[in-house]
Design brief:
This protein is α+β, with helices and mostly antiparallel strands. The chain has one domain: Hypothetical Cytosolic Protein, Chain: A (2-Layer Sandwich). The chain is 29% helix and 28% strand. The protein is built from 3 helices and 5 strands. The strands form 2 sheets. Strands 4-3-5 form a 3-stranded antiparallel β-sheet. Strands 1-2 form a two-stranded antiparallel sheet. It is globular and about 45 Å long. The mean pLDDT is 89.
């Protein structure tokens, strides 16, 4: 057996680039509303966005995100901006 551990990769829903899971922000649509998931383990429909200002601003202001995923990011826009700064 090899001792190498795989790093899971996910796709940013805005720029469509595959990146390691730790480099992305996970957003979950839970029963209580949309939440930025810092742990990566919350139940619910989750999508990933890059930690860059361009991807975050496109996701927040774009109507295509709501049409495709069924929820809007307006309620967590401030949290997303703080996550990008970290």
């Amino acid at each position: 057996m090899s001792g190498t551990k795989k790093n899971p990769e996910r796709m940013c829903v805005v720029c469509r680039l595959m990146k390691p899971k730790k480099e992305l922000i996970r957003i979950v649509n839970t029963e209580n509303g949309v939440v930025v998931d810092g742990t990566g383990k919350l139940n619910g429909r989750g999508v990933y966005i890059c930690r860059c200002k361009e991807c975050v601003s496109k996701a927040v202001r774009g109507k295509g995100f709501f049409k495709q995923y069924g929820f809007s990011l307006e309620t967590v826009a401030d949290e997303l901006e703080k996550a990008v700064e970290r």
